[in-house]
Design goal:
about 80% helix, 7 helices, about 180 residues
């Protein structure tokens, strides 16, 4: 009987530790999911001062597509811009993972814009249109960076997925885009 009791205490202790670890894992997973949902909500919600990040991203994409068309019509290589637009199309419904694509789009749009303004044989109408489209792209990017509701949720999510022990369970999750 004593031998049975000697072995049952460690077994009970091991069982309690396993249960505690399981509850910890479940709690961490819920924290990561909750932070991700907060970013999704802030991305779509309309901020009274800055509007919706989702709407600003859509505006940025539309202006970039127009700028790309002007570039193509003037013989400018727009392949980097096309690739960035395709990358955004695959992730634009979610703010998680689209930051790199938006940064690539902004960079490639800037390059195309500079080539239209300086290095192409574009007429003044095309140059003026390109200036307006790039100005709107730049403005949308600035507005997104100033949206405190979204930025706060994105920063919190990024902190959660990068801190221990949540980082162990957040493998494969991309950070939310934070601009500015």
């Amino acid at each position: 009987m004593k031998d049975l009791l000697k072995h049952s205490v460690p077994l009970a202790l091991i069982s309690a530790v396993i249960i505690a670890v399981l509850f910890t894992f479940i709690g961490i997973n819920r924290t990561v999911a909750s932070a991700g949902k907060a970013v999704e909500k802030a991305y779509s919600d309309h901020d009274s001062r800055y509007g919706s990040v989702k709407e600003d991203v859509s505006s940025m994409i539309a202006n970039a597509e127009n700028l790309r068309a002007i570039g193509q019509a003037n013989g400018i290589d727009v392949s980097a811009m096309t690739a960035a637009l395709e990358a955004i199309a695959s992730v634009k419904t979610s703010p998680v993972g689209f930051g790199d694509a938006l940064d690539r789009l902004y960079s490639s749009a800037s390059t195309v814009y500079q080539q239209i303004k300086v290095g192409s044989g574009a007429d003044e109408g095309a140059k003026t249109s390109a200036t307006l489209f790039f100005s709107d792209i730049d403005s949308s990017r600035m507005i997104i960076s100033q949206n405190k509701l979204y930025k706060s949720a994105a920063e919190k999510y990024n902190k959660v997925i990068s801190s221990f022990p949540a980082s162990l369970f957040a493998k494969g999750r991309k950070p939310a885009a934070v601009f500015g």
